[in-house]
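Lecture notes, unit on protein representations.

Consider one protein chain, 265 amino acids long.
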Amino acid sequence: MEHVPEIHRGKRRGRLGIAASILPDLRHLGRWDQIPPMWLEGRVYLEYLRLIRDPVFRGVDIPPGLGRPVMLIPGFLAGDWTLHTPFQWLRRVGYKPRVAGVTFNVMYSEVMLRPLLDTLVELHRKTGARVSLVGHSRGGVLAKVLSHRNPDLVEQVITLGSPLQDPFDIHPLTMAGVRAAHLYNVFRYGHPASVEARFLRDLAAAPKVPTTSIYSRSDGVVNWKACLRHDVNAVEVQGSHIGLALNPDVYRILAYLLPAPWRQT
């Protein structure tokens, strides 16, 4: 039997100990109750067909974007490509959209914020205007904290199915992915999830910019109640979690909010 040097065994025990320490508390197992079956997320294909047949997709009766900057942030285990459709729509109706530069949204939140801040600063510098942040699922959670730390650069935050109230109030299958992501981060960075403590404090803090949470009661991934907070505006739509980025009702809401109507009164 091959002998493992004591120092190697010590490192292994240390990393496994860190890994155990970063897993969410056992009460955060996700919820089966109150969340619709995940198979309903298959509606996303029908939702896309509904979108491309809707006049809103062609820009009918949509106020011009006038070059306003918008930054799109994808959800957990997703990348910029998942927001290609809203990106193209925003560009067609006159906005200056920018994807976040995310290939795979799985890193620690603090790690994810670094390239997001770079993108935000660059877009603000190029346009000379405050940037609207639109985040899907975990992307909305990241957007909220990004705006909290950089309110002078952000016009507003719009979240799509984002658990702003409790980021762990999600479907058990999604929670399994979160646990796997934590393990991945521990073995990659060698730090426990305690590095996320500041992030969670900033997430819970009162918003520093106008923030709107768009949610669906038939969301099969995030408990819709976790999208509601007393200090955040909430707008309900019908549809799946994944399909919130392809929902024509969401596009109508975006068309109303992105011009920042509170600045025009």
